[in-house]
Amino acid sequence: MPDAAPSPDAQASIATFDALVIGAGFAGLYALHLLRNQQGLKVRVLEAADGVGGTWYWNRYPGARCDSESWSYCFQFDDALVQEWTWSERYPRQPEILRYLNHVADRYDLRRDIAFSTRVTGARFDEASDRWVVTTDRGERLAAPFLITAVGCLSAANIPDIPGLADFRGRWVHTGEWPHEGVDFRGKRVGMIGTGSTGIQAAPVIAEEAAQLTVFQRTPNYSVPAQNHPLDDAFRARKKAEWPVLRRLMRSNTNGHPYTISERDTFSVSEEERRAAYAQAWDQGGLSFRATFRDMMVNKAANDEASAYIRERIRAIVKDPRTAELLTAFDHPFATKRPPIDTGYFETFNRDNVRLVDIRATPIERIAADGIVIGGETIPLDIIVFATGFDAMTGPLLKLGIAGPGGRTLAEAWAEGPRTYLGLGVEGFPNLFTVTGPGSPSVLTNMPVAIEQHVEWIASAIAWARANRVARIEATGEAARNWTAHVNEVAERTLYPTAKSSWYLGANIPGKPRVFMPYLGGLGRYREICDEVAASGYRGFAVTPLRG
Q1: Nearest-CA neighbor of 433 among 379, 381, 475, 489?
Q2: pTM of the model
Q3: Which overall architecture, per CATH, does domain 8-156+392-545 show?
Q4: Closest of 231, 222, 377, 245 to residue 311, by C-alpha
Q5: What is the pLDDT of residues 442-480, one digit of tens each?
Q6: What is the per-residue pLDDT across 426-438, written as a single tens digit (0 to 9) for each?
Q7: Alpha helices, DSSP H, located in 370-522
Q8: Where exactly does CATH 3.50.50.60 map onto the chain?
């Protein structure tokens, strides 16, 4: 039976806006700035946390740090902002990034239009008024023609369904929902499940404090040293002076980082030259190891060369041969899963108070009151840390309870996997824009650069729609099908889909459709495609004019 029409009193209780934004991280803050400060629209941002920051509000686990270089991991839209902010380290820690985002919120007077401690419980498109109606856990109803999701790609924590968790008498925490008061590991027996990017950052810090750290590893991960260090005044001044050139580079290259990929193929040089190039990249540290040779991610033999070098370096660090073997038993080519960078991760396993347990060979049976049971043995624990990642990219969107015309939910539309047009629009959901959604470069890039491109495109589309008296702008089915096919086709030209356990494919979530979600065509080329679509009058979007 269809819902009854809202009463006049109920209609009156709806607060109306020109646009609603969900999330107050990098994307939500910039969307508010462009739409309110630049276009003069009435905007409300809804944020579940009690402060700004998004990812950097929630992820406060020990060792939490950005893997993009600090001076590039920032907003680029305002030269004055770039010049006035000073980063302390090559790779900033979570508190420093959060301070930066709070500075941005204050500098552009953004807080007054952000509703904090407000969680979205549903969003439906009202066909009669061509508006999105959003409900919150505070009992509010808000309406606007345009709805922008700025919830981030990695914000829906994945807590594995392990029998017995409710029976555990100790404390358990997830790295993506870390207690703001912190966790005291002193004198504690700690078990950490997960060895992805988060676990690789957290383990060295936890090990320094805990009496005993047991790392439960299912999938060993490659990692290259970050080679983090404080930044001196001369370096910072040089980067600020070079900023116009660096900004052009980041906006036009493949991944939004301030480096270029080598034009050399792996086997175009001698073995001696290859090893020298790998050694230089290892000593330099950071994500640019992937850029050592241009064919690393498309040629399996080339990737094998890089992988063999990384294994060799890890084995040289880890003293116990059996532990070193477990840490290097990779089941995927290098960088086909998110490639972490670390500070002392492999060195951690040389500590007397650290143990590595292989749960690929012997899976966890259950969690008992006093620890984790594996192979019939109970490993006694006081604290369990889940470094088990997220329901990436689609999870944060599906949690919002979005329903389009006719009541069809986004979960129903994506039952066989996400299908978008450009990662920006979804067929059947008019006036809904997804920042760094599935089908965009997103997690394969320096995120602030990708976010700025998306938010600027969305803001321009909204301005165009308003100027042209457009009631609805919606991705067509044909455009979404063609774009999704293109995303898959580009991915298949690379080694990425061969990593069957990757969260890029949704493989970390039981029952989730296996679809390669990010766009691998490169951020620069993607920007050109988006600009071409806008210049054509939004080709691939169906447009409905305002009534009357």
Answers
A1: 475
A2: 0.95
A3: 3-Layer(bba) Sandwich (3.50)
A4: 222
A5: 999 999 999 999 999 999 999 999 999 999 999 999 999
A6: 999 999 999 999 9
A7: 395-398, 410-413, 447-467, 477-492
A8: 8-156+392-545, 158-221+340-389
